[in-house]
Amino acid sequence: MEFIVDNVEKTFNVGYQLGQLSNAGDVFCLIGDLGTGKTHITKGIAKGLAIDEHITSPTFTIVNEYSGRLTLYHFDVYRVNDPDEIAAIGFDEYIFSDAVSVIEWSNYIEELLPEDKVIIYIDKLPELGENFRKIKIQWTSDRFKYIKELNI
């Protein structure tokens, strides 16, 4: 599934719908350059999970935990130099739980990711305008077929 958004609110809305539809144990892997909107999608997922806390990127702590309809684990692995570093914090215990996990910069730790996951690629489209983004969503199993219900 691929589409173009032209503002931050639409980027947030993608995440919001994913959060509303997501199930326990879902893992969302976000890939995109700095400033593409990974954290905006995460904020939307949190809101869709009925989380009212302020969502910030856990750049220096690696993971933040939030409570809502389901627990949300929000990872930012941008500063991880070695996948063993994230494995050491008990990464498997987080992502193989009943929580929803969102992993920004997931391409940095590909070898640690579960087989069943949703991969969200976000690319800037400067030729169309400052806030234009192409969002491409891929999923690896039928458990994520609910993504077809997104109304973008």
TrEMBL record:
Q: Where in the cell is it found?
A: Cytoplasm
Primary place of residence? cytoplasm
Molecular function GO labels: ATP binding; metal ion binding
| GO cellular component annotations of the record | cytoplasm
Family annotation (Pfam families): TsaE
Q: Which UniProt keywords apply?
A: ATP-binding, Cytoplasm, Magnesium, Metal-binding, Nucleotide-binding, tRNA processing
**Keyword Cytoplasm on this protein?**
yes
Has UniProt tagged this entry with the keyword tRNA processing?
Answer: yes
Q: What Gene3D superfamilies does its record include?
A: P-loop containing nucleotide triphosphate hydrolases (3.40.50.300)
**Highest taxon, organism lineage:** Bacteria
Query: A GO biological process this protein is involved in?
Result: tRNA threonylcarbamoyladenosine modification
UniProt cross-references to InterPro entries, sorted A to Z: P-loop_NTPase, T6A_TsaE
Q: Which NCBIfam families match?
A: T6A_YjeE
Family, similarity comment: Belongs to the TsaE family.
Q: What is this protein called?
A: tRNA threonylcarbamoyladenosine biosynthesis protein TsaE
